[in-house]
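Two proteins, back to back. First:
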Amino acid sequence: FTVAQAAVRPGMRILDVAGGTGDLSRQFARRVGPGGEVWLTDINGSMLSIGRDRLLDDGRAQPVVRCDAERLPFPDGYFDRCVVAFGLRNMTHKDVALAEMNRVLKPGGKLMVLEFSRVAKPLQKAYDWYSFNVLPRLGKLVAGDDASYRYLAESIRMHPGQEELRGLMKQCGFGHVDCHNLSAGVVALHVGIKC
């Protein structure tokens, strides 16, 4: 859904922020063609190396840069699209990171923020119970790590909800922001257009 909403065309320049293992970068690289660019970035070098290797395994030698989303090492107005998927939630200063993403986008460029969000109210109690009781136990059983899944549930609750994130994106310079709830709001895609 995110890739479709990005409406990437051949020759575009795409920035994948906190792209880690390169899932979206790989999709975008297929669409920009040989005349386009997809820059895979992440602050975590281990994840970034996995993403780089996966791109190379696909036969796509795209630029890979280890950097902090709050201090992007790119010129103003360079990219047509910027995407951050399940990474904004972990950024300390979301406003600074969003302003940086706005800075590096061309006028008319799109920012795609795919992130866990607020579930629809009728499902909220059941979702909270599942997140704090079942998910950590599954994490311990499957991955031997319940703490990471407890952190996941907690970080989702601390992240701005749909309307709050829309407002924050507008404060950071995006003139128009749409929100698409997926899976009853478990995940939301915010699409901001730089004016």
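And the second protein:
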Amino acid sequence: MSKIANAFKGGNGKAFIPFITCGDPSLEVTEQLVYACEEAGADLIELGIPFSDPTAEGPVIQAANMRALAGGVTTDKIFAMVERIRQMSDIPMVFMTYANVVFSYGKGTEDFIRRAAEIGMNGLILPDVPFEEKEEFDSVCRQYGLDLISLIAPTSHERIKMIAKEANGFVYCVSSLGVTGTRTEITTDIGAMVR
């Protein structure tokens, strides 16, 4: 069983999964936030790798991405931070980023995924890669033992069963249309999506 699947065992099928944008305000603070989240009871941690055009993100995470990038954060610096974290913690962690970050690393997708596995990451979330286009990432993730996390959106409808059937790690259930951020109301029937 993967470390990600194990993260859901202790909470009766539920897990507390905080998200942190790497490098905002610094990688030193990010590292300390990981330890604090674990101490506070996190079961798994999503580490956001900043990207200059984070299309799925609302203004708060977009601003965090811009601050991190302006502060000089790079994928290699994030990898080095994860190596330090792995000396102190084995909490399951997944990267959340965009396909272009993965494509443009080193010689491409395999270099990124191989390096992520080497440093002890457990999974990868790519919100801009639809289910129908995931194979080029999923096959490499499987080769290196990373779970490529599938997303289900309110618009997935008849595709939900197919996506869930092929999911690894966990299913990321998107609760509302649009970008991330504050809502005054969520009208999605989450219960129907989960069922």
